[in-house]
Write a structure and sequence with these properties.
- With 171 residues, the chain is of the alpha+beta class.
- It contains five helices and nine strands.
- The protein is globular, with a radius of gyration of 16 Å.
Length: 171
């Protein structure tokens, strides 16, 4: 949900990038606030890398995390630790948050956001994945406080609507 909100936030510069199966970068959309860029982009002090997984099961359903406390839906994922690759991070985060072991099919693309309040350049890497083994999530303390649960959207349209906040999970 935050990714959609930041698109309209004037304190953020966001660039959406899609990578095709051959690894070619294809720019999808760029949203920028020129005043913010002129005054702040060069002072970003920290690069933060994160990952998100679009995980399909054998029935074509898509895994989403639902925060019952805050009422939002998101893709499984999180921060990349200094000792791991993005691919290792997406596997770890998906296992922790959704309880599923995955196979990465291919990289979907990146979203870069310059967060003015935190002086952070946030780079999120997206991956298309499929479930290879199921299990139970092992949520971190802050995720338990949010009352997170894993739900399965019936199809891509439903998953997009839920993440955007325009859908209903009871379909």
């Amino acid at each position: 949900n935050d990714a959609y909100q930041t698109v309209t936030d004037p304190s953020v510069y966001v660039k959406f990038k899609l990578i095709d199966k051959r690894g070619n970068d294809l720019l999808l959309r760029e949203v920028e606030d020129r005043t913010f860029l002129k005054n702040s982009k060069e002072r970003m002090t920290t690069d933060r890398h994160a990952v998100r997984s679009v995980v399909f099961d054998k029935d074509g359903r898509i895994a989403l995390l639902h925060s019952k406390k805050h009422g939002y839906y998101d893709l499984p994922g999180g921060g990349v630790e200094s000792s791991e690759t993005c691919e290792e991070a997406v596997a770890r985060e998906t296992k922790e948050e959704a309880g599923y072991e995955i196979e990465i099919i291919h990289k979907l693309g990146d979203v870069t956001a310059y967060l003015q309040d935190d002086d952070v350049k946030n780079i999120s890497h997206g991956y298309y994945c499929k479930v290879i083994n199921s299990g139970e999530p092992t949520f971190a303390e802050d995720e338990i406080e949010e009352d997170l649960e894993t739900i399965w959207a019936d199809n891509l349209d439903q998953a997009i609507a839920l993440v955007k906040g325009t859908g209903d999970s009871d379909t």
